[in-house]
Amino acid sequence: MICYSTNDVRSALESGETFIIYNGDCRHLFESTSPESIDFTLTSPPYFMGKAYDRSYRLNDFIADHQEIAPEVAKLTKTGGNIAWQVGHHVKNGVDVPLDFPTYQTFSNIDNLILRNRIIWTFGHGVHATKRFSGRHEAILWFSKGDNYYFDLDAARVPQKYRGKTFYKGPKKGQLSSNPNGKNPGDVWDIPNVKANHVEKTAHPCQFPVALAQRLIRALSPPGGVVFDPFAGSGSTGIAAALDGRRFLGADVNEEYCKIAQNRYEMLLDQKLQVRPLDKPVYEPNPRSKVARLPDPQTEVESIP
Ligand SMILES: C[S@@+](CC[C@H](N)C(=O)[O-])C[C@H]1O[C@@H](n2cnc3c(N)ncnc32)[C@H](O)[C@@H]1O
Question: In the chain, how many domains are there?
Answer without folding.
Answer: 1
